[in-house]
Write a structure and sequence with these properties.
The structure holds 2 protein chains of 2 kinds. Chain A contains no helices and 11 strands. By secondary structure, chain A is mainly beta. In chain A, a hairpin with a 4-residue loop joins strand 7 and strand 8 (77-82). Chain B is an all-beta fold. In chain B, the strands form 2 sheets. In chain B, strands 2, 4, 5, 6, 9, 10 and 11 form a 7-stranded mixed beta sheet that branches. Classes of the chains: A mainly beta, B mainly beta.
Amino acid sequence: QVQLQESGPGLVRPSETLSLTCSVSGGSISNYYWTWIRQPPGKGLEYIGYIHYSGDTNYNPPLRNRVTISLDTSGNQFSLNLRSITAADTAVYYCARGDNHDRGRCEIWGQGILVTVS
Amino acid sequence: DIQMTQSPSSLSASVGDRVTITCRASQSIGNYLNWYQQKPGKAPKLLIYAASSLQSGVPSRFSGSGPGTDFTLTIGSLQPEDAATYYCQQSFSPPWTFGQGTKVEIK
């Protein structure tokens, strides 16, 4: 079955760029919506943005001017870049797959990666 | 953005109890409402989609109702493994937004 796995640094310095990758196994990244969601320690879930294999993207307005999500179809993976990070960006970052009939329905999730900004 | 308000923020119930969590959207979202279960240290898991459709593999004691602005997640007979935090999420219009979560504890 399809599995997602986040990878990237666990510690990032303030003002730098956070770069994470989500590797997709057991299925093709073509088709579907590919989403990033984060969760600060002890808090709720926050949508970051999504990308579709067609190139369609959507970003959460509070993050829009700092975020880029990209797709690597040959590598079967997608990535998150978050610029000018601060301590407020410390969170567990999840990648997820959205359904083609309902873009926001996240039916498959990665295990998450904790990113600390310090 | 569409605001999602969940209640209660936490509850404690006994095994076998019927538990209901409510979620209110700031505008009508049709049936574009999903429920997730999250256990400590784990990723959220999709339980219910389209307000009332049970995700494959999810026990039938979980059910959901809608559509419109007011939604409920019901656990028909609470089991020990249901201890978790539950989130509603609207997928009607991006940015997708989540409720603040309801923590369910077992007495």
